[in-house]
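Q: C-alpha cells for this one, please.
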Amino acid sequence: MRIVTGAVGLALMAVGGTLLLRGGQLSDVALWLAGAIVLHDGVVAPLVLGVGLLLAAVPARRTVRGALVVAGALTLVALPVLLRPGAPNNPTVLPLDYLRNWLLALAGVAVVTAVVLVLRWVRLRVPRR
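A: Here is the predicted structure, written as C-alpha cells:
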C-alpha cells in the first residue's frame, strides 16, 4: 500500500510540476513557498511549541492539544475569507457569513472536547464491576 501511495504522490507531483512550468507562474509560486516557510518557521512552529509547553502541566493535555490542532486547522482554512477586505465584486462568490460559521465551528470543537473530557472523567470516577 505504501508503494502505491508513494507512486500516486509522485505522479501528482509530476502533474503539478508540469502545470507549474507550462503556466508561467514559477516566480509567484516560489514567492508563495518562501512566504509559507517564513510564516511556518517564524510564527506557527514557535506558537505550537509554546502552547505545548504551557499544556505540559494540564492533566488532559492530549485531548486539549487535539482540539487546538483542529481549531488551528479550521482557522488556517478560514483565514483567507476572514481577512478578505470588503465585499467581493460578485456577491455569489462569498455568499455566507464566514466569521459566524468559523466561530460556530470553533464552538463545536470546544463542545466536543468538553464532552470527551467529561466522559473520560466520569469513566475514571465510576467503579468497574
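A few notes: The chain has four helices and no strands. Residues 5 and 29 are 25 Å apart (CA to CA).
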